[in-house]
Design a protein that fits this description.
single chain, 11 helices, 5-stranded mixed beta sheet, 4-stranded mixed beta sheet, globular, binds oxa(dethia)-CoA, alpha/beta
Length: about 350
């Protein structure tokens, strides 16, 4: 029995909007087609949050509520809420404040964390620090992004990639050897221009001109990001395995950020993992930025067993990237009768 206090994931919850935007729909909007999108990215459809007055906090609060319900705890028991997002409802107040109010988490403090597609991974590690130090007993960590709010639906290079969604986890202390064991997190700000949103911040405050120049939409140099993402994510995942003496056989699941099926395939191969041990749901949701990893955890929760070794890996704008090795801490309740959606065992070719 270990006496080291670690932070364990003890519940997972999610929210995805009902509206689907398919490859077919997009081919009516821009010069693209289903074959290109599927073969280059693995995406078939994404979810879009529609309706006035619904932003990232709307999805985050719903994901958070499911976490609390599944763990069977009251919102007042939360000590902190961290929301990873690049699409906050507003610049300020933080989306975490809106989620806190919506949940009625009267005992919690909280904040937003901006690390693009590595947002959930960075927030998970930040929350774990609060648990390990004894400063908090229950931390809600949510990844939520309404990517449709910053996507230019006349730009075929980006509009096919992103979708909306949210998911989150509860972190609690563990002294039995489960939870987050090791992490390697990185940033390299020199890559910022290849994936960014130039307008709306203090550098380029919103004006008619910034809107005319479409600076309120995300911009990505896809090929440049692709190259560094494959290397960055694979290097860091392999490094985490090496220093914890893990072989491919020891890892029950890789939980990769879902930006491109080809990137995920390359990372899995470098780790020596077969596709049966890769969480992959990009075909259904596209790239939901901070939500991809917890959405996977939600979907595979019923397959995970106490003690399973898991490697989470992400790469995103900034650049930000990293990997975390953890041991899963619980066996989920039996699969609900309405069934749990599961992975399509798609081909992963680089
Ligand atoms: O999430 C955080 C980090 N982000 C990533 O990890 C994303 C990394 N990048 C990628 O996943 C890929 O680079 C993309 C999926 C974004 C693009 O795939 P690609 O294989 O790198 O394509 P490309 O940008 O090199 O474009 C190839 C061709 C171009 O045509 P030409 O110049 O060869 O005639 C594009 O204009 O495909 C064209 N193209 C499209 N064609 C049909 C670009 N977008 C589309 C489209 N439909 N939607």
């Amino acid at each position: 029995m270990s006496h080291i206090t670690r932070a364990s994931i003890t519940a997972v919850g999610h929210y995805v909007p009902e509206t689907r935007l398919t490859n077919q729909d997009l081919s009516q909007m821009v010069d693209t087609n289903d074959v290109w999108i599927r073969s280059r990215t693995g995406i078939e459809e994404r979810r879009i949050l529609t309706g006035k007055g619904k932003g990232t906090s709307y999805m985050a609060a719903r994901a958070g509520r499911e976490v609390l319900l599944k763990r069977g705890i009251a919102p007042e028991e939360l000590d902190a809420i961290i929301v990873a997002t690049v699409t906050p409802d507003m610049s300020f107040p933080a989306t975490a404040c809106l989620v806190q109010a919506e949940l009625g988490a009267t005992g919690a403090w909280g904040f937003d964390l901006s690390a693009a597609c590595s947002g959930f991974l960075f927030a998970l590690n930040t929350g774990a620090g609060l648990i390990e130090s004894g400063r908090a007993a229950k931390v809600l960590v949510i990844g939520s992004d309404k990517m449709s709010s910053i996507t230019d639906y006349t730009d075929r290079k980006t509009c096919v990639l992103f979708g909306d969604g949210a998911a989150g986890v509860l972190l609690e202390a563990d002294n039995e050897g489960y939870g987050l064991i090791d992490s390697e997190l990185n940033v390299d700000g020199r890559g910022w221009e290849t994936l960014c949103m130039l307008g709306g911040g203090s550098l380029n405050p919103t004006t008619h001109d910034t809107v005319d120049r479409k600076m309120h939409y995300l911009h990505q140099d896809g090929q440049a990001v692709f190259k560094v993402a494959v290397k960055g994510m694979a290097d860091v995942a392999v490094e985490i395995m090496k220093r914890n003496n893990l072989t491919g056989d020891d890892v029950r699941y890789l939980v990769p950020h879902q930006a491109n099926q080809r990137i995920i395939g390359a990372v899995a191969r470098r780790m020596g993992l077969g596709l049966d041990r890769v969480m992959l749901n990009i075909s259904k949701y596209g790239n939901t930025t901070a939500a991809t990893i917890p959405l996977c955890l939600h979907e595979w929760e019923h397959e995970l067993r106490k003690g399973d070794r898991i490697v989470i890996a992400a790469f995103g704008g900034g650049f930000t990237w990293g990997a975390t090795y953890l041991r899963w801490a619980y066996n989920a309740a039996p699969v609900p009768t309405n069934g749990v959606e599961n992975s399509e065992k798609a081909e992963l070719d680089v």
